[in-house]
Protein: CoA-disulfide reductase
Amino acid sequence: MTTTVIIGGVAGGMSTAARLRRRDEDMEIIVFEASENVSFANCGLPYYVSRTIESRDALLLQTPASLKARLNLDVFVSHRVTAIDPAAKNVTVRNEVTGEERTRDYDFLVLSPGATPFLPPIPGIERALTLRTVEDVDVISEAVRADGVASAAIIGGGFIGLELAENLHKMGIATTIVERSPQILAPLDEEMAVLVQDRLEAAGVKVLTRADTKKISDSSLEVVLDDGSSVTVDADIVVAAIGVRPASELAKAAGLAVGERGGIKVDRAQRTSNPAIFALGDAAEKVDAVSGEDSLVPLAQTANRHGRMVADIITGRDCQAQLTLGTAIVGVLGLAAGSVGWNERRARAAGKNIRVIHVHPVNHAGYYPGATQLHLKLVVDAKTDAILGAQAVGENGVDKRIDVIATAMRAGLKGSDLADLELAYAPQFGSAKDPINFLGFVDDNALNGEELVQWHQLEDLVARDNTVLIDVRSAGEYARGDIPGSINVDVDELRDWLNDGGRQQLEGKDVIVHCQVGLRGHIAAAILAGYGIKAANLTGGYLTWAAGMRARKP
Amino acid sequence: MTTTVIIGGVAGGMSTAARLRRRDEDMEIIVFEASENVSFANCGLPYYVSRTIESRDALLLQTPASLKARLNLDVFVSHRVTAIDPAAKNVTVRNEVTGEERTRDYDFLVLSPGATPFLPPIPGIERALTLRTVEDVDVISEAVRADGVASAAIIGGGFIGLELAENLHKMGIATTIVERSPQILAPLDEEMAVLVQDRLEAAGVKVLTRADTKKISDSSLEVVLDDGSSVTVDADIVVAAIGVRPASELAKAAGLAVGERGGIKVDRAQRTSNPAIFALGDAAEKVDAVSGEDSLVPLAQTANRHGRMVADIITGRDCQAQLTLGTAIVGVLGLAAGSVGWNERRARAAGKNIRVIHVHPVNHAGYYPGATQLHLKLVVDAKTDAILGAQAVGENGVDKRIDVIATAMRAGLKGSDLADLELAYAPQFGSAKDPINFLGFVDDNALNGEELVQWHQLEDLVARDNTVLIDVRSAGEYARGDIPGSINVDVDELRDWLNDGGRQQLEGKDVIVHCQVGLRGHIAAAILAGYGIKAANLTGGYLTWAAGMRARKP
Structure:
């Protein structure tokens, strides 16, 4: 009889185990999980803190008993594997309750131990709670309900930090997010992330960016901002949600290859440097779909998909892991923020020649009640038009647009192909021209010669003597806020203005147009082209520019 | 100067006009619209009847004046083109207000006159209202608010019929849908459409299928059911929403080629048989993406996309229309029903060798509050695994899944590729294994040998002496409703049962397993395979079977 031992009984490990059984009724399948629970709803933990998820049982999707009954799996919780002997093909496992140790032989070994929260070496860090397991959420749940708890500081403005902030805020706890980098939500670019920060701040959650936590005291944090000033943040509770590190120590100790970023090295079949040992989930390296390079992407759904595949391979099927897009989403205070692939920051840092598009349409037909604004960003290769990545922020429809683009990326569609996707339209669900189509329209226009300017390029461009920046919004919009250096000519009066001497005024100049979101700017650029004047359009318009300015304000 | 004349100023025509101007500042662009409004929100009309869309102005997206100011278009409403002279390259147009006629020369002519509601030759049909224009909605709005109006009959259970039913029902009007065919919502298969019918009936909307309207009287309809019985339907208001016919008379009279179904024939550049004349929108034929055959697909978003393309071609760009998937969605009483590509009925009628998959997962993580059930159906080519079509019904997340599959179809992904799409997951938005992934898992398993049985094949199969149908749900589920001829063995007790003599009982038999939705059935089939017993699984389980039975009940 073949024996497969699986280390880790959550997303990746449990997917492997369940699929193995469905593929092989006779295999011995043993799962060792170091924590007290298997198959728990990792991504639901923050919502149990505030009891948005009311029942703790709802987090526990399976138990060793239910897994035995249905799938004949031998699942051991509170069992920590302490050593792997690849030569002898066995593992040493310790019962965390009794302290008892034993070895267990395997034919195949699957490593899915996950990751551990990163704790920076700050004085007082021992006060910081982390959130990774059901045990962790029990600790946090009790801590936030203790007498006199009125404030919380969350170190780290990533997905889990934001989810926790929402839940603590919902409980009436004064919450501050302390983020060391210039923005929250690293997968997004700054002018997109600031839209989420706006929402947090509007709700009363404090957000400090470029903020370095120097010390954790009894009921506060000492934080230094990048101007050198110090801030004291009230913090009856401190949670560290800075990120995770792959739990690869065991693999390393067993002599398995580990990558530069600390993830267990695997091939496209999730095989480690030892052919009988597989690794997957947060502990293993992934291959980035855009660059083909190794990366770490600690996401549950990737772990689940890879688990299924590892089971297929162990049971004799020949298959390969898909490259990883890093598709992700987070909900915060009624807003959703999603991303797939690379952002602009990463693409520029890698020296890629890119085209970047911002649009801000409503999520469904504007004439139907309840439409809300979407903010979409697309990054494509300037020459090949390959989609490198996308981001979306909005109250509704973010997940749909990210999923459509993730599907398009997987299938190799180009940016301009988005123009002609045939998406479902009824007034409650979309528009005759879906926001996705709009991204494609703008990309198609740019691919065919329309010049786009980015919000972060504007200051330099406008500073040049030869540049004219025309704001083609209405006089009323202009009065409510304008970009320094712009002149105002309403798009509906642009032809008259050009005929009335404006044309001469623009001769020999570098002309940039902008409106509120980009559409009227596009029309204005087309009108100007008809007058022989080449004009660039500020993509995303005033809205994106203003967001960028907020993101960069000191 | 080049002149383009456009007949029809709604979706297709107005998209053409706007794009033409953005591509050519100098072209003369003339739009003749027979109704009193251009660029109105066609798909919003049903919602104005109940004032869900409160303001009539919200339906009127543009006016001739606004289009003149921004795009320098010459738009004439209440102007009906009465003749085209392709040799002289002119049209004759009548001002519907003054009765005045004139001719107008063109270099390019674009036909986007839309379609006209079909009115069957029934006695009293002159009482039936239709819904296509703003004028129509004004008439219906007034009619439903007249004193003493308490009941309405809608002839036709398609998209517009259902949307109207929702809105009339919302106003407290006793509403009956009278549909001649065996089911409402022709794009769906019967067992999917019945889920929508369930919702209508639960809300108190009457639905008569296989119901032929024989006569419309003063305040009722006389309807004959397929058992020959007659029913009188109260109908202070009668609306005919049976479907539309392409408005191709003008094209036909001008000698342009018209297809068998009455649509104007066009090539992949939307060119009619006359190279200076283009046609698009509901009046023109489309090319079906699955079969490559001519079809009629009267959908706003196709018209919009083709409008953009026609403008590109007229202004010198070389491009081709994408094949049409017919992606569509409708919202009814909190439920959404969507489809893309072909349904099972159509595929079987065309003699295709298909594989059909039903799944019924929740729209997002079940542990997060508010998850609702989705019903998804996938039709793939049994051999090539090409996706032929998909359907979805549910309260939430229907549009997203249909759009993802529409994107996958456009890009040529296979059914089993859906297993590995990397979609955005957070508990409010999806699951670590998204419903789309589930479709792919089931397809992948079936592609690799797992046999699936369809609900409509079950009766014949069970009638055979040699078949054993095992319901692997719990005893409690079985007691609440079972499939005739099934025996009950809980999946969690299946191994014991097999070891206890069950194995011998099944030897040499054709075994079919089923559960509630298909997942436990899949596990049971895997267990049986381990015991050397090949078993087929009822896809979609009891839920799909029961829906099919409801759909077919006399």
Remarks:
- The mean pLDDT of chain B is 97.
- Chain B touches chain A through 91 residues (CB under 8 Å).
- Chain B has four domains: 3-114+245-314, 125-242, 334-447, 452-552.
